[in-house]
Amino acid sequence: MRNQVSEVEATRERYARRATAEVDLRYRMLNPSVWQSVHERQRATLRLFASVMPTDLSQLRLLDVGCGSGGNLLELLRFGFDAGNLTGIELLDERYQAARRALPNALDLIHGDASEAVLPDAGFDIVFQSTVFSSLLDDAFQRRLADTMWRWVRPGGGVLWYDFAVNNPRNPDVRGVPLARVRALFPGGQLRAQRVTLAPPLARIVSRIHPSLYTAFNLVPALRTHVLAWIAKPLTP
Fold first, then answer.
1. For position 77, which CATH number holds?
2. Backbone torsions φ then ψ of 163, nearest 5 degrees
3. Among 15, 54, 70, 139, fewest CB within 10 Å belongs to which?
4. Count of structural domains within the chain
5. What pLDDT, in 10s, does the model give residues 53-112?
């Protein structure tokens, strides 16, 4: 428990160090590199849903672990999910409050450590995490959270994963999560994955020249830094 508390507090400190005006400006949607990477990820996610969950999205129950200020949940509402079937968990108070302001009241928000959240086993069709695990530098805490997420997924559902696959040498507060680690965290899952998202530093440079260069450079898989994955939970153990 002591290590868990230490990692939770360390995670709060890491996010606090990122909360600067410079970082906020870099990630504004008005920047061509940002909106292009967002649109790319949205298209890839919708193709994935169409393949693995070809049904009415409004009928699916989804949990967003580390939902931040609610941006991904707002996207999911636009995709067709029903607010009453969406749940978000957020550790940081400021982000939780921002999410509560932005999201409909029908959407359930939980404030606190996701690894200690009390939620029903097999209660969700999809458990989603976006750039959470790359901010968890303690292997044991990663494992504990992954086990908890897996417990929440119903058989036949899955974990939706979007995160860095490579390290950022300029940011010691994050650590890439390669596919081998994803497989190790969810050994009972059936994994399908693709590389997405042009490396953000490169995306910012080429998009300043012309936005179309994002697409051109993104044709090279080696320049993509993130993994979008579906980790399916078998119907039978």
1. 3.40.50.150
2. -165, 165
3. 54
4. 1
5. 888 999 999 999 999 999 999 999 999 999 999 999 999 999 999 999 999 999 999 999
